[in-house]
Amino acid sequence: MTPVSARRSKAWTVRKVNRRDTGYTGVPPWVFALAAAGALFVLLPLAAMVAKVNWGQFIPLITSEASLTALGLSLRTSATSTVLCIVLGVPLALVLARASFPGQRLLRAFVLLPLVLPPVVGGIALLYTFGRQGLLGRSLELAGIQIAFSTTAVVLAQTFVALPFLVVSLEGALRTAGTKYEAVAATLGARPTTVLRRVSIPLVLPGLASGAVLSFARCLGEFGATLTFAGSLQGVTRTLPLEIYLQRETDADAAVALSLVLVAVAVAVVGLSYRRPRAQPAEAGPA
Amino acid sequence: MTFSLDATLHARNFDVGLTLGPAETVAVLGPNGAGKSTLLGIIAGLLRPDSGHAVLGQKTLFMLDDGNRHFLPPHARGTALLAQEPLLFPHMTVLENVAFGPRAAGANRASALQTARHWLAEVEAAEFADRRPGQLSGGQAQRVAIARALATDPELLLLDEPMAALDIHAAPMLRRLLKRVLANRRAIIITHDVLDALMLADRAIVIEGGRITEEGPTRAVLEKPRSKFAAGLAGMNLLPGTITGHGLTSDGGLDITAHPEDGAVPGQDGVAVFSPTAVSVFLSAEHGSPRNSFAVTITDLEPHGDQIRIHADGLSADITPAASADLELTSGMTVYFVIKATAIAVYPA
Amino acid sequence: MSINRVRVSALLAAGTLAAGLSGCTAPNNASGTRTVTVFAAASLKATFTRIASEFKAANPGTRVTLNFAGSSDLATQISQGAPADVFASADAKNMAQLSDAELIDGTASNFATNVLEIAVPQANPASISSFADLAKPGVKVVVCAPQVPCGSATETVEKATGTTLKPVSEESSVTDVLGKVTSGEADAGLVYVTDVRNAGDKVKGITFSESDQAVNTYPIATVGSSKNKELARAFIAMVTGSEGKKVLSDAGFGTP
C-alpha cells in the first residue's frame, strides 16, 4: 500500500477527562489497604495532637500577643520568601529544563541539596555566608547591611530551604510541557522574552502555582535553619515554629494549640491553592 | 526575491540545496526519517546546520561558511511553521491565538485583533473566535492554526504534514483551503499524500537519506518517477480531466462515476484518484452495476509485493497471482478494469 | 498519705545507703550486666560522662546509659513513661513538676549549682568587661529566652541590678547562645560558667559579681518507675559523693 491511507486513518479524538469516572481503575485492592495505612500514618498523629488540645484555653492561648506576633511574622516572611523563590527559582528551573551546558547535572544536584540537607546544616552554611564573619557578610556590613538577627535572615533561611520545591515542581512542568509550543511561538515572530511571558509561563502556571504553594508551606514550617542562622526574638525573628518550640519549655498546652494553628494555616493554604491541575485540553495530548 | 538554501547537518546526515521563486509552492516527499522535517527545522531556525547559507529575499537567514557565524533566530526570520498538530496555545482563545503573531510583531492590541478576525474569516473559522482550542475538532483547530500562521504574513510558509493528523473527513476541506491560501504565496509543504503534492504544489522534490533524489514539476515527478520513493507513490492511478455532475471525464475520454469531493464544480479541471488495489480485472464488460468499467490493453505484468501489478493504458491494477493465472493474462490482451464508484475520489485540480 | 510518704522516704534513705554499699562492695554475679539509665540536663554532659565511667570502673559489670537533653524535654519524656532510672535536672522547676506528679522516689537532692557568666568571642570585639557593658548601645547580646532556665536566671539578674538588656535574640538553649557567640554573630552571650568552660578556647568567659543574684541549683532523684532503684541510688550516691563533687567542681559547678 502507499502510505496515503495508512497516514490518514489516524483518527483524531477529542478526549474529555471525566473526573467522576466510575469505570475500571486497574488498582488492585491491596493497594487500597496500604494506601489507607499510609493515610492513617499521616492523619493519626494529627488527630492525636487535636485530642491533646486544651479547648477551654484554646482561644486565649492562640490569641496571646506572642502567638499572634509569631503567626503574623511567619505569614509575612513566608510570603516574602515565596516571592523570592519565584524570582530566583523560575529562571533556575528554565535553565535546568531548557538549556544544556556542561555541569548542568551538577548544578541541579546542588540546587536540590537543601531538600535532603538537615535544615541546621543549611543554617550553618548561611551563617558562614551572610553572617558578620561570613563570606559576604563582611562586605555587606561595610555597605551598612546587617543581616544577622534580622527578619531578612529569616527570609534568607526560608528561601534557602524552600527554593528546591519550586525548582523541582516547575522543572517537571516545563519538561512535561515540552518545547513544541515555544518553537511555534518563535516561528510566529515572538522574541524569547515574549515566548516566555506569553507561552512558556502560562503553560506551566499550574506547576508554578503548586511549586509556589509547596514553597510557602515549607517556609511556614521552617525551623532549623532559622534557629541556627537568624536567632529568635519576638516580632523580629521568632516565627511560629520557633514560638512553639519555646512555648513547649513552659506551657505544653500553648505549644499544642499553636501547633494546631500552624497545621490549620498550612492545610488552608495548600487546600485552597493546590488543587488538581486543570485537565489540559486534548490539544496538549499525546505528541 | 527568491529563497535559496544550502545546508548540511552531519548529525542527521543532511545535505540539501534548494531554491524557491517568489510565489512558488514546493512539495517535499520522502520516506519517514529522510530529513524532511530537518529541512523545515533548518529553514525555521529551530535547528542549526553545521555549514551552509540561506537567503530569504533581502534577509540572510544564516551564513555558516568560511568562518561566518551568522544565524538569525527563529523570530526574526518570517518563516511561519505549521505542524502536523495545530499546537494552538491552550491558554488563549482562538482569536488571541491568531492575534499572537501580529502582537509579537509589535502591532497594538486592536489592530492585532482586527488582523486576527480577518484571517479567521479567511479560513471560515470566524465563529470559533471566542472558543478555547480544547473545544475545537482537529480540523477546526488546524484551520485556526493556518490562520495564525498566515496572520504573521510570512515570507515563507512552512507546512509539516498539515493534514496527517486529521480525520479523513476533515482533510478535503482543509486541502481546498490550503489551495486557496497558498495561491501566490511562497511555501514548502511536507506531505505523504500525492494529492497534496498535485493540488497544492507547483513543484515536488523527493528527499531520501538526507539528499534530494528527485526534483521537478509535480506531475512529471509522479508520472515518470526516477526515485524509488516516487515510484511507490506513483502507483496511484491519477486521471486528470474535467469534473462532471457525477464524476469526471478524463482527458483520455473515459467517463468516470465517482463521488466528487465537496467543492468540485462541474466543468472545472479535476483529477480522479484510485488505488490499484481497488481495481478488479474481468475478461468481459460488466453491465448494469454502478461501476466503472474500462476496456484496456495490457502493456505488461510485474510482481508487486505478493500481488501482480498489471499496467494497461497508463492505469494499474493489483490482483493475486492465482487470479492472474486463472485469467491467463498476458501482454497485449484486452481486459476490463472495473472500479466501484465509492473507491474513486475526484478533486478539483 | 503524709505518713506513707515519710515512711517511704525513710525506706528509701535506708535503701540508698544499702545500694551504695552493695554497689561498692558486693561482687557482681557473672550472669548478665546491670544497666542504669540516667536522664541528665544537657549542661551535665561532660561531667556525667566522666562520673559514669568512674561508676563503671567502681562497679564492674554495670552499664550506664546516658541521655542528655533539655531538662523540660527530659521531664516530658519521663512523664510519658520513658524508662529512666535517674533524673538530673538543671533547675528545680522541672524536678518539682515530676515530684508533684509523684513520678520520682522521695525527695530530690541538690548536688550542684551554676551561675551565669558572660561569654564573648576571644577577640572581645565590643570590649565587654562588666554586666553593665551588655546594655551599651550597639552591643549585640544574645540571651536565653525567659522560658528556659538560663533565661529566667538572666531576668533575675537584670531585675536585681536594674539593668535592662536589649538582646538581639532570645534563644531556646544555651547551645544556641554559645553558637551565636563562637560564630562571631553576637558580641556577647549570657550562659552558665560551666558552658563557658566547656566551650574551651572558642569563647572567653567574663565573670561578674551580680551573677550570685541568680544561682541555679541542680537536683537529682531516682525515678519512681525505675526497675533498678538500687543501682540508681548508687549512681546518685556517687554524684553527690566526693568523686562526683570533684568532677563537678573541676567543670566549674558550685556546691549547694
Task: Give an account of the 3D structure.
The complex is a heterotrimer of chains A (287), B (349) and C (256). With 287 residues, chain A is an all-alpha fold. Chain A has one domain (55-273): MetI-like (MetI-like fold, Orthogonal Bundle), CATH 1.10.3720. Chain A contains 14 helices and no strands. Chain B has 349 residues and is α+β, with helices and mostly antiparallel strands. Chain B folds into two domains: 3-228, Rossmann fold (3-Layer(aba) Sandwich); 236-348, RNA polymerase II/Efflux pump adaptor protein, barrel-sandwich hybrid domain (OB fold (Dihydrolipoamide Acetyltransferase, E2P), Beta Barrel), CATH 2.40.50. Helices cover 24% and strands 34% of the residues of chain B. Chain B has helices at residues 36-44, 94-104, 109-122, 138-150, 171-182, 194-200, 218-223, 228-233, 321-327, and strands at 3-9, 14-20, 25-29, 51-56, 59-63, 70-71, 81-82, 157-160, 187-190, 203-208, 211-217, 237-243, 247-250, 255-257, 259-260, 269-274, 279-282, 291-304, 307-312, 315-319, 334-340, 345-348. Chain B has a six-stranded mixed β-sheet with strand order 7-8-9-3-10-11, with helices on both faces. A six-stranded mixed β-sheet of chain B has the order 14-13-12-16-22-15, with no helix packed on it. In chain B, strands 2-1-4-5-6 form a five-stranded antiparallel β-sheet, covered by helices on one side. In chain B, helix 2 crosses helix 3 and helix 3 packs across helix 4 (138-150). Chain B starts with a strand and ends with a strand. The mean pLDDT of chain B is 87. The two termini of chain C are 30 Å apart. Chain C is α/β, with parallel strands linked by helices. In chain C, 41% of the residues lie in helices and 23% in strands.
Task: Sum this structure up briefly.
Chain A is an all-alpha fold. Helices cover 72% and strands 0% of the residues of chain A.
Specify the CATH architecture of the largest domain in chain B.
3-Layer(aba) Sandwich
User: Can you summarize the main beta sheet of chain B?
Assistant: 6 strands, mixed
The CATH topology of the largest domain in chain B corresponds to Rossmann fold
Give me the side-by-side strand order of the main sheet of chain B. 7-8-9-3-10-11
